[in-house]
Give the backbone structure.
Amino acid sequence: MPALHRPYDTEEQEFSHVKHHKEFYLIGGDLHLLAKDTLFRVHGYFFARESPQFNKMIMVPVSPGKKREGTSDSNAIKVDAEPEELAVFLRIFYNPKFSVYEWSNVSDWLTILSLSERWTFPEITKLAIRELQKHDMPTVRRLALYKKYNADTLFLVPLISELCSRDAPLALEEGMELGMEMAILIGQARERLRANPADEGRSPLPSGMGRREVDTAVLEMFGIAPDYYPPFGAGDASPDTPTGTLPS
């Protein structure tokens, strides 16, 4: 597993510099994790429930006489994260208020998004994307980020439509951030939406064209059926229901 390492072995490593995390070395915790020089003791239930990757590590039966990984400080599972990054991630499970994340900011949710994708926590990935929706972010950066982490089409289409609707085409640095395929498809969608050639690099939408027409063109460009795009009236679609595929 690329993001997880073998347990911390006291016979092979110096243990003298390892410390317990002040917030997340919990009495009653049954999963021991090591991030750099800091030990965490948390409840493995959350990890086994939310992550197939961790579930295989901590739920698979062990051979007689062998000790399960992560059951003590001496064989803690070493994770690829800074101590404060892991602490931010753990606050999702130990949040003092349900669905209220007063302690969080954009940087925290970017960390959570990255770790949840790395360690295969799909529901936490979706949560991070929903929470990032509440924060201001440049459109191109948000689209590149959501594309990287396979966000649902419900979140991607409005961003693409915004870039197709604005007068100015993508700048070079924006195209590089989005990737060649996405930049080309956005350029093609912009051309299809405009009846007149660009005027000195700027090209407004035809008079009277609304957001629905733009969204329809974007959906057609990416091969997504409009019936499955929630703003067009699909009752069962939601951010948790995949509605199409965009360039990777």
